[in-house]
Request: fold
Amino acid sequence: MDIAFVLYPNMTALDLVGPYDVLSPGPDVTSHFVAATLDPVPAGSAMRIVPTTTFDTLDRADVIVVPGGEPYEVLAEGTVAAWLRKVHPTATWTTSVCTGSTLLASAGVLEGKRATTHWALRDLLASLGAEVSTDRVVRDGSVITGAGVSAGIDMALTLAGILWGDVFAQGVQLAIEYDPEPPYDSGSVEKASPEVVDLVRGLVANEFGAGRSEGVKA
Amino acid sequence: MDIAFVLYPNMTALDLVGPYDVLSPGPDVTSHFVAATLDPVPAGSAMRIVPTTTFDTLDRADVIVVPGGEPYEVLAEGTVAAWLRKVHPTATWTTSVCTGSTLLASAGVLEGKRATTHWALRDLLASLGAEVSTDRVVRDGSVITGAGVSAGIDMALTLAGILWGDVFAQGVQLAIEYDPEPPYDSGSVEKASPEVVDLVRGLVANEFGAGRSEGVKA
Reply:
């Protein structure tokens, strides 16, 4: 089973690595890190990840995982969406984490489908034609999308259960000791205080460039 | 504030990336990925991460984060422990995820201290002289340890609250939408079924080489 993890500049590392550590130990899995070139791809201030293959080379996959990140540049640039148009028809499962769903939408993968994304960017996903859900993990046909960043772990465990059965998926959950005890209860926009929500909306607007959506190819 | 994330071969990617995505957005943080050389470091079957600096070059840090992974080779090899002996005295906080605590122990950092690790490797940590706790996050003085793999997110949010206050840490939790909804309730050895526990004990013994502890430098 070939699993293609998509890499692009300014993706969020945890969006990639949550699903990678859940899915890559699966039976007979070959994991591919696919990017525009073989040059290391930046994810945050210090991290650079080395691709194993390129969009030109990898033309099929059984499973596709698209992480989120700063969405506007990668949407406008179009290379990831072009690869998805080519490879999604070959895949049994196409998945995303966080704003990765906006890339699926821009490639036409979410036409008429329900999908989720980071809570602060639901409007962007809706503007690209998807039917936006506020659920943490959404399955619609062969497409599974996860909400923001850490939801990739829940999304991938859901897929592991589908691919390899409940006992294997539970084993992965135990192997990564995923029995969360967050020190705060502030992980959703419904649970966080207004002060915290305002803080994060400001950070997201600053980091992702509110109003830059005019460059997006839908 | 300089945060040193330690890289070594066959570390677990999520142990590194959970704390990285929680701590690196902190105010005035410079994140360093420190390894034996500048060559990309393997983490699992497909991932290679590029270091930003080396053990010889980086001789101080405000915060140290040591991920877990296959523990026996890195313990026997000794380079990470030697670096920890040099840099731990310069740090305000020294932290670990999963079997990263065995590296702290082998460097003498856990002498007389309570600490936690992956549930399947508690005996190894005890054999290295630490007082082993089964808690998910353990703080003893300036040392904070997290349990297996995904516990690094909880450990890092705890540290973020200490470093930058509750509102900032809650903001990070909301930014990564860390409101877990695992599809199973199998994330601890107390909650998983005996069948699942046996499956994972077999995988861990196979992957980490049970009985190879004779090579460990304590």
User: Anything to note?
Assistant: Residues 210-218 of chain B have pLDDT under 50 and may be disordered. The longest strand of chain B covers residues 30-35. Chain B touches chain A through 72 residues (CB under 8 Å).
